[in-house]
Amino acid sequence: xxxxxxxxxxxxxxxxxxxxxxxxxxxxxxxxxxxxxxxxxxxxxxxxxxxxxxxxxxxxxxxxxxxxxxxxxxxxxxxxxxxxxxxxxxxxxxxxxxxxxxxxxxxxxxxxxxxxxxxxxxxxxxxxxxxxxxxxxxxxxxxxxxxxxxxxxxxxxxxxxxxxxxxxxxxxxxxxxxxxxxxxxxxxxxxxxxxxxxxxxxxxxxxxxxxxxxxxxxxxxxxxxxxxxxxxxxxxxxxxxxxxxxxxxxxxxxxxxxxxxxxxxxxxxxxxxxxxxxxxxxxxxxxxxxxxxxxxxxxxxxxxxxxxxxxxxxxxxxxxxxxxxxxxxxxxxxxxxxxxxxxxxxxxxxxxxxxxxxxxxxxxxxxxxxxxxxxxxxxxxxxxxxxxxxxxxxxxxxxxxxxxxxxxxxxxxxxxxxxxxxxxxxxxxxxxxxxxxxxxxxxxxxxxxxxxxxxxxxxxxxxxxxxxxxxxxx
Length: 474
Ligand SMILES: Nc1ncnc2c1ncn2[C@@H]1O[C@H](COP(=O)(O)OP(=O)(O)OP(=O)(O)O)[C@@H](O)[C@H]1O
Fold this sequence. Notes:
This protein is an alpha/beta fold. It has 3 domains: 7-138, 3-Layer(aba) Sandwich (Rossmann fold), CATH 3.40.50.2300; 151-315, Rossmann fold, CATH 3.40.50.300; 318-467, Helicase, Ruva Protein, domain 3 (Orthogonal Bundle). The chain has helices spanning 15-27, 38-47, 64-73, 89-98, 110-140, 151-163, 180-189, 208-216, 233-236, 255-264, 290-295, 301-307, 323-331, 340-348, 354-368, 381-384, 397-400, 402-409, 421-435, 440-447, 451-463, and strands spanning 7-11, 31-35, 52-56, 79-84, 102-105, 170-173, 198-202, 217-218, 230-231, 241-245, 266-267, 276-277, 281-286, 310-313, 337-338, 373-374. The protein has a 5-stranded parallel β-sheet with strand order 2-1-3-4-5, with helices on both faces. Helix 10 packs across helix 12. The longest helix is centred in the first third of the chain and has 31 residues, at 110-140. The two termini are 50 Å apart. Adenosine-5'-triphosphate (ATP) is lined by residues 145-148, 174, 176-182, 245, 285, 287, 355-356, 359, 474.
């Protein structure tokens, strides 16, 4: 508790008590203004601001309770303590419901009065700090802009505004990079929980055994490495929104636990018997067809119905007419410019990695281009190839046939033996991903690897961005 002086407003009609308390508090170093009635107190509030006010409940004219109501109506910021006589505890409780922070029963010692005023002052300070921090956080949050004017994107924006005000779970489906997380944030920012936590978890990016501990937390000693108690993301997001990305990857063994928390808000940390209750709005996303996952037994039907109360389908970028140009203009820094042939290629390309891929292609082009003009030469070859209407090809086609590789790429010096194994792996993974329209689950199946392995490979390839043929796909 801080010892700094309190700016105090003392409102009490009994002259003796008012004067004695004011003198005592002043002797203790506090800055006291005293009023003998509610009307006088309101006049003082109009001229000055106070940390704490003490209102006597029973005053002739305006009672302490009426004064409190006026203070609330006029949004006067200060902590109010109510002074009551013996046997009027119920009215003290009603005063606290109205916004008083504390009450004291008369007769009370002057030491008690000072102690309660100091507690109230500290509480007020914390409240103000909390408000300031929230304001700072919301201002430092990047402005969310869902770029796109195509009919399908307009429909998405309409849905965002429809589902946002409800507290119901939302399922967002769409290919990788279509903007599922951006849409989830837009829903949260347009909801009544916009100033509450927005917590995210990606079920595919975490090893299976970590997902449970991340979501539900654990008790110290519940497994090797659990050296301290840890709250899970459900507890951290309590009162706010939890975005569960790649929910289709949630291990079957964990699905009943998620179902339970969705049904009645109850959950237990790993290794703990204590039941906890949370109130969290769930927004989930997947690039799998969850209904099919239910049919094939990978996803529980009851959980599917729970998360799929409201659903939103994000169209792939290739189906958003005109949006490629809009996104290019949005992400291209001033004073950069894209020439028409490059623009045609960008518009023809099918964008298997969707908006994320487009952003990376633009960033990469601004690094490679001369001056401020992006031309076909600054685009990855599979995109540049689309300028004349060609479909994208497997990068390793370059080495398959000397003649065709020369005519396709004009690269007579190309030598397959000069390729590094990692380059070939990257090219092949990106090719398969492009063929599967960015669907990582399908791509992983074609490649014969687990989806988590594919994530790790993509992360690695993203580290060597500038060389990646489809470097944007995460
Ligand atoms: N409509 C849009 N307007 C502007 N930027 C967008 C839009 N859609 C997506 N983006 C940007 O594209 C990138 C990828 O978006 P996001 O992470 O939301 O995709 P996702 O569908 O959640 O991908 P994944 O399935 O791989 O998790 C982000 O940088 C995001 O800001």
